[in-house]
Design a protein that fits this description.
Number of helices: 11
Number of strands: 11
Structural class: alpha/beta
Distance between the termini: 45 Å
Strand content: 15-25%
Helix content: 25-40%
Number of domains: 2
């Protein structure tokens, strides 16, 4: 059984400051909205843990947008590539949907025949602090996918905002060690405070249910998606898409990457890995003479359909989890105002707008 503690607003700031990590990233209030920043470099920053979830995806802490993965010489000899090591880092402000995303990425990068050493090193070095959603972003729909506006597992520490501070609960040995080191910054929570947490969580769930009007993913979604593809409905759906790829770059579970080589000075070359997106026109382009290996998805509607199929059909078949956590970041970022929830409603037979 986990012991639940209480920490004041001031005590939480001091607890974050005391963490044994050279970098402590936390959601702070900047330009009117929450975003992640290193508290070591901005100790006076205004914490935004009570605000809506940050717009930025936390996957960048584990899968950078650009990284060097290999080195070699012009003679083809392998050079001393980058070591898959990472400095210890704490991240505060993650949400329940973010932990679902990390569970998904763990299956992709750590399970199977080969584990990604760079992802694995960063994953081991992370100290994860989640926070219950006190405020709900108007694009969020985690409960429609079976999620909760609070983390249930995977965290080192979890915070629940209360009126006068936070309840804090450890979910790992690292978390328990941090609370022990915190000393008198924390105290054991009262029954009334634990009851308040239960009430606040129920209110958040109810708010999400009202916001999304009982939206649920139909069990036969894969078949419905395929019927849409055959009927030409995707041509209508993708009319607003401008192919900017913001939806996939901001998504906490999209993991596609592109490898390319470049000169690194003298006879040295390096191989880099960057984020890639399945909605871009050249994503699936194959090498070979013209016409021999054409792009298997030359039309945007087929690429957009594939994105949905991967999230809701292929991912469950491959890793046993939906590839969507309902965080709503893709809806927030879309320049064409494509709302994934409306597509799910139409696929479910509810075309109310």
């Amino acid at each position: 059984m986990r012991t639940t503690y209480f920490v004041s607003e001031e005590g939480l700031a001091r607890l974050l400051e005391s963490l044994d990590a050279p970098h402590v990233y936390a959601a702070i209030r900047r330009r009117g909205s929450p975003e992640y920043a290193d508290l070591r470099a901005a100790p006076e920053a205004d914490l935004a843990l009570r605000d809506v979830r940050p717009s930025a995806s936390p996957k960048a802490f584990l899968q950078p947008a650009r990284e060097r993965v290999a080195a070699y010489s012009v003679q083809g000899e392998a050079g001393a590539g980058p070591e898959p090591l990472a400095e210890p880092r704490a991240v505060a402000g993650l949400r329940g949907c973010d932990m679902k995303a990390l569970e998904y990425l763990d299956k992709v990068f750590l399970e199977g025949d080969v584990a990604d050493p760079f992802y694995a090193a960063r994953r081991r070095s992370q100290f994860l602090i989640t926070v219950d959603c006190e405020k709900i972003h108007d694009a969020c729909f985690c409960t429609a996918l079976g999620g909760k506006p609070y983390a249930e597992s995977g965290f080192d520490l979890n915070l629940t905002p209360l009126g006068s501070g936070y309840l804090v609960e450890a979910g790992s040995d690292k978390g328990r060690g941090a609370l022990q080191a915190a000393g008198n910054l924390v105290r054991e929570a009262t029954e009334a405070e634990v009851a308040e947490r239960t009430r606040r969580r129920a209110e958040s769930v109810a708010a999400l249910e009202r916001q999304n009007e009982g939206l649920r993913v139909p069990e036969d979604l894969e078949a419905r998606l395929k019927r849409w593809q055959e009927s030409g409905r995707w041509a209508e759906t993708c009319g607003a898409c401008v192919e900017c790829a913001a939806c996939t770059f901001i998504c906490p579970t999209c993991y596609c990457f592109y490898l390319y080589d470049q000169a690194a000075g003298g006879d040295a070359f390096e191989r880099l890995r960057t984020w890639d997106s399945c909605v871009l026109g050249d994503y699936s382009r194959m090498a070979g003479p013209a016409g021999a290996k054409p792009n298997p998805r030359p039309r945007l509607r087929t690429r957009l359909a594939n994105r949905f199929l991967h999230k809701y059909a292929f991912a469950p078949a491959q890793v046993g989890l939906l590839g969507c956590t309902g965080c709503g970041r893709c809806i927030e970022a879309c320049l064409g105002k494509v709302d994934l929830r409306q597509i799910l409603k139409e696929l479910s037979g509810d075309e109310s707008r």
